[in-house]
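sorry to bug you again but im stuck and you know this stuff better than me. below you get a single protein, a line of residues and a line of whole numbers that encode the local backbone shape. mainly i need to know what kind of three dimensional shape the backbone takes. anything you notice is useful, everything is just below:

***
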Amino acid sequence: MRREQRGTGHGHGDGHGHGHGHGDGDGGGAGRGSAGRGGRLARLRHALTPHSHDATEAIQSAEEASGAGIRAAWIGLAGMMATAALQLVIVAVSGSVGLLADTVHNLGHAITTIPLLIAFRLGRRAPTRRYPYGFRRAEDLSGVLIALVIAASAALIIVESVRALVEPRELTNLGWVLAAALIGAAGNEAVAVYRIRIGRRIGSAALVAEGHHARADGLTSLVVVVGVAGVWLGFPRADALVGLVVGLAIVWILAGSCRTIFRRLMDGVDDGTVEAIESVAARVDGVHGVGRVRARWTGHRLEADVDVNVDGAATVAEGHRIAEIVHHALLHRVRHLGHVVVHINPAYDGVVPEHAHELTAHHAGG
């Protein structure tokens, strides 16, 4: 939204910047006050967490959301690279196919963070005349690249596992393999918790998907533990079978990720989004009905448009005032909403006359 309200204690930029609370006592002013009272510890906590909003609340500012997404991507990348590096060393000394499969997938997952970071950076660029909606769609396109990398890693793992089943390899240093698998599980779960939490706060399907992907990585690391136990119990092909299970699990994860990516690219929204917009708009004083509502994701922000009915005898100024109130209410109460266009229809006794859209009716296709 590109309006600015002066004298109200807050401004609305591209998204919804706050200088006041949401009724829960956690507004921007409160956040600054508590930081001052808390001293260094509060400032450190403020720096490490995505600012003054509660963990379960959506971040309304687009700039703040992008910053939180970039920070989560970098922290996750560091964690995954450290885990994968340690696992690579143990793969080299043990020859474990199961651990190799887990490590390759962890490395592939780390690599997919790079296009996500680029997409977040692109999304912060200002709209242009050629791209008037901005560049946030780059985030959805990065999801396609991530899916391709996941597919390639799954293919490599399955091929290596089948080869090991046909030609069994002698495994050594099984204790180290077990330790690496447990470290991989713990490291990936830590990354998953952080990315999912931040992804939900900023409305980023790509970041949430990356978080679930990391959680699945942790589970596959635990599967490697099963392979080690099988080898210890005298079944040498257990390690290769575990690698094959990991590869198939990755294919299953990929299918779920592709569904989310496809929905976003096709302008699909989550269940309840349109209903939430209708409900909020309908409760505004002066609104006598809600017509067409549309919404779509552009990266991790929602764009929407809504038709509302007002008294046909109202002045232009009064109609604009009601539209402004609807706009403001929607920005506050619909999670991840970055911008909304409110169209006003004149209504008489609650009914919009047919002649109100007489000029454009033939363009509506029935």
Notes: Confidence is low (pLDDT under 50) at residues 1-60. The two ends are 32 Å apart (CA to CA). The CA atoms of residues 182 and 222 lie 7 Å apart.
